[in-house]
Task: inverse folding
């Protein structure tokens, strides 16, 4: 999630292409690339110590406050929160949740109260905030009465789905006090505040919009929902909404992009031999898709019929997309842009090419999956905001191939190319380019894209015009799969403690891509390892991880430390300030180090090793996500997600009597929240 600031004209990692070093040397990628730069300098705050406290911890001289937490109404006139309740702090029904802030808040984005291009900088008093709601925990959201772990009533199961999606709401900021607050809509349905849920109307566009799987599944969704909530009001819309919204992005034309990640986990199978499911499974392409995403393999307790594979076997084809929402226009139905490919989408970072095409980077957050970018066919028009909403409808989707010599190329994913590529046993041809978008992972694999260690955020620092220098950071969270044990040149492996094998990637790393000619639309690039997460104390850095294994979590690469200072693990999201520092949030640090997840700040420029400082930690059981800086750089926002879901000893909360394992933020039942951090003196954060 990039902050757009206008101070990036002389951007940092200029280095790679400008020096043209690789063309000359064909060297292995390494930190020596930055050798002619000054030593990287640390951020200017006193780092937070490792801790397992059940609160947010910020540096001395800083304060944090909650902005909004699960269940808060987005409209005036709704019943106030009942913070003392177990589970939902309101009457837990679908209709209530459809007008209240959801759970598992992830990506955060701020939009100017009134759109202008370039985007404004400096202090604002009003803005629009968009927040993703990635997931829901039935144990946390709907605990049963009489000691039962879950409320399995039809009403509760339906409400659980409405916890996910997106919240859009106005915010106000008082520069004098530094406070931010939610501005409620005057009444439900009035104003631009809204929830987008798995029941909202959406429109599919792009080459897969009429794919037979999507057509079949969309018809079933509309049949079920017409009986429940009425037919779609917009012709061609499907009441499939969106869920599992992880990270995302925002566009120069002022729209929000939300990425549907682990959509496969939201389906259940009431009858494994239902005629509809058996018929679907006779199609080899469907069987392959089911195997790739294992969407019949997740624990769920049931729910609305459209999420039952026995009734709607092609339901999963409606998800895994990048969805565009217009914060300024509640009447415009969110658009699922099939041209950006279906996968476990983590993010959607938009930058403008040298010729004003929209370039959108996405990562597929699973072991051994790929990094992608979309390049629009048409050009951004800064004078016609509305017309730009169709920019993501037509274009070309590419997957990244990273070569051992530090070069790389973007491989176009088309049916013609994929059908020419060698096929493995059971692989079926692609019917057309739309079929490639639906079965994106298969196409990227056949065409030779590079398998990565869970690529999450893929972000490129730009200015307020959404222009940068073609530098892109890929956050690889880690890879614990056996099939990915060997890694590859872009996903290096440490030696085991005994030195007799390769360690799995327990703590993640960051790959940096430099697009050719500093143009995001380029088809070639150079790349290097920007940093390896972990412990910088030695080339062998043993730690006993959460599974009780002693593993090597060194942050060294090619015989040198890539970091100094604070150790961290599992980088997930990244944003950039206007002083060329990266702000990185983590998801999973406690599996490696005895510390809650948090935010780490390191310089984007200068030769390594990079000094790392821990800026913040979140409470027990939570991941930290959605790092975001206000345009004036005086407020830092982030998400506290699934707080209390895991104990300090690594136990998942599944309704145990001694859980949940946090009481954040009110001292009672834990509830996910968006928080913000300021300096007590009102100054620039991080300095
Ligand atoms: Fe939702 Fe990839 O984290
Ligand atoms: Ca994430």
Result:
């Amino acid at each position: 999630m990039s902050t757009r600031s206008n101070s990036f004209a002389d951007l940092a990692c200029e280095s790679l292409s400008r020096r043209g070093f690789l063309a000359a040397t064909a060297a292995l990628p390494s930190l020596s690339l930055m050798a002619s730069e000054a030593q990287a300098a640390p951020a200017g705050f006193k780092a937070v110590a490792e801790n397992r406290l059940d609160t947010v911890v910020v540096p001395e001289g800083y304060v944090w406050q909650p902005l909004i937490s699960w269940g808060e109404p987005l409209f005036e006139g709704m019943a106030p929160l009942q913070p003392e309740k177990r589970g939902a702090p309101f009457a837990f029904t679908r209709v209530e949740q459809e007008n209240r802030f959801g759970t598992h808040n992830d990506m955060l984005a701020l939009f100017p109260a009134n759109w202008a291009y370039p985007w404004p900088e400096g202090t604002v008093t009003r803005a629009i905030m968009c927040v993703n709601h990635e997931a829901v925990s039935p144990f946390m959201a709907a605990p049963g009465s009489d000691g039962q772990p879950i409320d399995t009533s039809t009403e509760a199961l339906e409400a659980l789905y409405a916890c996910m999606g997106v919240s859009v709401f106005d915010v106000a900021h008082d520069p004098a006090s530094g406070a931010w607050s939610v501005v409620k809509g005057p009444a439900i349905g009035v104003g631009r505040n809204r929830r987008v849920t798995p029941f909202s109307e959406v429109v599919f566009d792009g080459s897969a919009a009429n794919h037979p799987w999507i057509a079949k599944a969309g018809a079933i969704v509309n049949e079920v929902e017409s009986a429940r909530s009425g037919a779609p009001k917009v012709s061609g819309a499907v009441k499939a909404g969106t869920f599992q919204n992880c990270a995302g992005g925002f566009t120069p034309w002022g729209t929000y992009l939300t990425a549907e990640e682990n959509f496969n986990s939201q389906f259940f199978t009431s009858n494994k031999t239902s005629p509809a499911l058996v018929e679907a499974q006779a199609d080899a392409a469907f069987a392959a898709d089911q195997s790739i995403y294992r969407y019949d393999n997740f624990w769920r307790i049931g729910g609305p019929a459209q999420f039952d594979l026995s009734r709607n076997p092609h339901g999963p084809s409606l998800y895994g997309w990048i969805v565009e929402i217009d914060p300024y226009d509640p009447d415009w139905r969110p658009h699922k842009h099939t041209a950006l490919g279906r996968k476990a989408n983590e993010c959607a970072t938009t930058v403008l090419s040298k010729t004003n095409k929209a370039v959108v980077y996405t990562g597929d957050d699973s072991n051994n999956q790929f990094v992608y970018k979309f390049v629009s066919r048409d050009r951004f028009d800064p004078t016609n905001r509305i017309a730009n909403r169709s920019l993501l409808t037509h274009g070309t989707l590419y997957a990244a191939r990273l070569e051992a010599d530090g070069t790389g190329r973007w491989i176009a994913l088309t049916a013609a190319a994929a059908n020419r590529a060698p096929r493995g046993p059971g692989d079926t041809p692609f019917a057309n380019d739309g079929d490639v978008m639906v079965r994106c992972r298969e196409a990227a694999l056949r065409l030779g894209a590079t398998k990565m260690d869970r690529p999450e955020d893929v972000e490129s620092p730009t200015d307020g015009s959404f222009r940068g220098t073609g530098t892109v950071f890929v956050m690889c969270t880690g890879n614990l799969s056996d099939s990915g044990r060997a890694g590859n040149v872009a996903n290096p492996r440490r030696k085991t403690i005994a030195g007799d094998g390769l360690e799995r990637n327990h703590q993640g790393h960051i790959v940096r891509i430099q697009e050719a000619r500093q143009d995001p639309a380029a088809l070639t690039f150079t790349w290097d390892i920007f940093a390896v997460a972990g412990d910088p104390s030695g080339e062998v850095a043993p730690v006993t991880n959460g599974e009780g294994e002693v593993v090597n979590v060194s942050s060294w690469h090619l015989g040198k430390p890539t970091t100094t200072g604070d150790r961290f693990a599992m980088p997930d999201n990244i944003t950039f300030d206007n002083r060329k520092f990266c702000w990185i949030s983590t998801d999973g640090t406690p599996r490696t180090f005895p510390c809650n997840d948090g935010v780490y700040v390191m310089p984007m420029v200068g030769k390594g090793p990079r000094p790392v400082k821990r800026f913040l930690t979140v409470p027990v059981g939570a991941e930290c996500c959605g790092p975001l800086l206000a345009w004036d750089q005086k407020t830092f926002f982030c998400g506290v997600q699934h707080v209390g879901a895991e104990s300090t000893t690594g136990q998942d909360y599944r309704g145990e009597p001694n859980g949940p394992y946090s009481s954040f933020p009110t001292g009672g039942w834990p509830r996910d929240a968006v928080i913000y951090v300021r300096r007590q003196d009102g100054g620039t954060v991080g300095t």
Notes: The chain has one domain: 14-679. The chain has a mean pLDDT of 94. The two ends are 20 Å apart (CA to CA).
